[in-house]
Amino acid sequence: MALALSAAVALLMNLFLNMFGLSAEAKKIAKALLWTSYIMSPVEWPLSFTLLNALRAAGDARFVMIIAVISMWAVRVSAAYLLAYHLGMGPSGVWIAMTADWCVRGAFYAWRWRHGRWQNKNALIEG
Predict the structure, then answer these.
(1) Contacts of 16 (CB under 8 A, 6+ apart)
(2) What are the distances in angstroms from CA 28 to CA 10, 57, 59, 76, 113?
(3) What is the pTM of this model?
(4) What is the residue extent of each domain of the chain?
(5) Which residues of 90-110 are buried (b: 16+ CB within 10 A; e: fewer)?
(6) What is the DSSP letter of 83?
(7) Confidence of residue 123 (pLDDT cuts 50, 70, 90)
(8) End-to-end CA distance of the chain
């Protein structure tokens, strides 16, 4: 479904961008960012966020939160700083760092799911 949605929006990208009256340079940057999203969203977003919700619903919220925070700072923020500023990639570098963060999170969540430690958690809230 994510692939179909990305493909549909990619086909309509120019129509959407024209609605905002962007300059030629801004439109060029927006297209590059959107293509990054169209390619990576169907691949990594479901693994990073759907699996996250399944683990969290099973009572493994602590693991999910720890991985999210560590990945955000270790991958997203540091890679964005490196790519955007030091390598001169600007906004594209930030989006590449974001998708790298999704890949790292997805790998950890898939590892957790595969090894089954989440099955030992208690999803019931006592109070």
Answers:
(1) 9
(2) 14, 40, 44, 23, 39
(3) 0.80
(4) 2-120
(5) eebbbbbbbbbbbbbbbebbe
(6) I
(7) low
(8) 38
